[in-house]
Amino acid sequence: MGDLLSEAAEERLAKSGPLAVRLRPRSLDELVGQEHVLGGGSALRLAIEQDRPPSMILFGPPGTGKTTIARIVAERTGAAFEELSAVSARVEDVRAVIGRARDRLGGNGVRTILFIDEIHRFNKAQQDSVLHAVEDGLVTLIGATTENPYFEVNSALLSRCTVIELTALSEDDLAVVVERGAAHLGAPLDPALVTLVAYRAGGDARAALQILELAHETAQAEGTPISERQVLDAARKRPLLYDRKGDQHYDFASAFIKSMRGGDPDAAVYYLAAMLEAGEDPRFIARRMVILASEDVGNADPNALVVAVAAAQALEHVGLPEAQLNLAQAAIYLALAPKSNASAVAIWEARRDVREHGNVRPPAMLRSTGHRAGARARGHGEGYLYPHDDPAGFELSYLPEELQGRRYYRPTPDKEAADGGEDR
Fold first, then answer.
1. Residue 114, SS3?
2. Is the C-alpha dihedral spanning 345, 347, 348, 353 positive or negative?
3. CA 201 to CA 176: how far, in whole Å?
4. pTM
5. Which fold has domain 34-165?
6. Could you read off the pLDDT tens digit of each residue along the chain, which spans 424 residues?
């Protein structure tokens, strides 16, 4: 009875559900985008068409076809389709699916595809509960996630699955989706409006159809054709593809740092804005700028560290949104500042020598003479020249004997200069 009711619900959704559900592709030929993994002759497409789909993790932004591909695989192969949401499913639910899969396979030879949406939300125990069924081939697992599975899915399960990365749909791909939606609604769109809907969807096919459907309903209520005003009202804000713990976090942070390092203030401000709009932790941004001030600017402009630290302190005192001004000022200053990594290279090389050779004891002239009786009798302090009394003290080498001649700090004179001379 449960299966019959589920099938009836599916049929009704296909007729009365959201436009994105009604227009869900039923075959690989109907699927728009993802040519890099599902194009003609690709390994994954051939595996699906030849009824030998592997267990896989579909990883990509929202609205790129993860659920659709899972359903197409099930329909193309004739397997039973079981769907769980990692948000609400328990270990008992997974075991029940595995039990039904075993009964089907033993009873009539029908295989089972287990689709787990948002699989990154499964904890280790939940992921382990499906591990052996995947390994034995009892179920073909298709997991969907917007998070990088290499961060969120345990390695044992990952090793038994093929990771397929899906990409945000291009505006050309989305235009095809929008035109299909408009035809289904019986509401032909001007090409400019098709382009506008595709642009506002931000790479998300589901968002494109939601915008179109809401604009259509608004137009119907007003008794007018769909207009630019109605599309913009339906879209409100372009979706942001960003995740504070996943690839977008690292990619945008990397772009931000490299833009400042490379002297591009416009790019630095753009990536700063993108991170702030997406809800990135502003303290993380401020910390990265403080680090960059010493790593990439260094003594070429010692004031860069002052500016970066001041921005971090201003953030604590003022908070967002006002502190965006302090962060932007610091990002622009750092981008435009002269660059030198000499200080960073110095500490990196010095620590490497300590790790490789140990902490070589200072020469006798530099050892303490006051903390223990008899230190001077053992030669501590002998040969030391107080530089303020004897300028020859500036000419001495203070490195341990084993490291004499080693240079860690190698400034570039035209970049790191203070008071008309090279920094020390």
1. strand
2. positive
3. 13
4. 0.59
5. Rossmann fold (3.40.50)
6. 445 555 555 555 556 688 888 989 888 888 898 888 888 888 888 988 888 888 999 988 888 888 899 888 888 887 888 888 888 888 888 899 999 999 998 888 888 889 998 888 888 888 888 888 888 888 989 999 888 888 778 888 888 898 999 988 899 999 999 999 999 999 888 899 999 999 888 888 998 999 999 999 988 888 899 988 988 888 876 655 555 555 677 888 999 999 999 999 999 999 999 889 888 889 999 999 999 999 999 999 999 999 999 999 999 998 889 999 999 999 999 999 999 999 999 999 888 888 888 877 777 666 666 566 556 556 566 667 667 766 776 767 667 777 787 788 888 765 554 433 334 3
Burial of 57 (0-12, 13-18, 19+ CB in 10 A): buried
Kindly tell me the burial class for residue 7, based on how many C-beta atoms sit within 10 Å of its own C-beta (0-12, 13-18, 19 or more): exposed
Which fold would CATH assign to domain 247-336?
Zinc Finger, Delta Prime; domain 3 (1.20.272)
Q: How far is residue 162's CA from residue 160's CA, in Å, rounded to a whole number?
A: 7
Residue 23 identity:
L
Question: Which residues have C-beta within 8 Å of that of residue 232, sequence separation ≥ 6?
Answer: 196, 200
- Find out whether 28 and 48 touch, Cβ atoms under 8 Å: yes
On whether the CB atoms of residues 112 and 79 are closer than 8 A, the answer is: yes
- Tokens standing for residue 311: 């921005």
Q: 171-235 domain in CATH 1.10.8.60?
A: yes
Strand partners, 222: none
Q: Are 207 and 63 in contact (CB under 8 A)?
A: yes
Both tokens of 92, joined, read 């008992």
By the 10 Å C-beta count (0-12 exposed, 13-18 middle, 19+ buried), 3 is classed as exposed
For residues 239 and 207, is the Cβ–Cβ distance under 8 A? yes
Amino acid letter, 320: L
The first and second tokens of residue 48, run together, are 């699906």
Residue spans of the domains in the chain: they are 34-165, 171-235, 247-336, 358-422
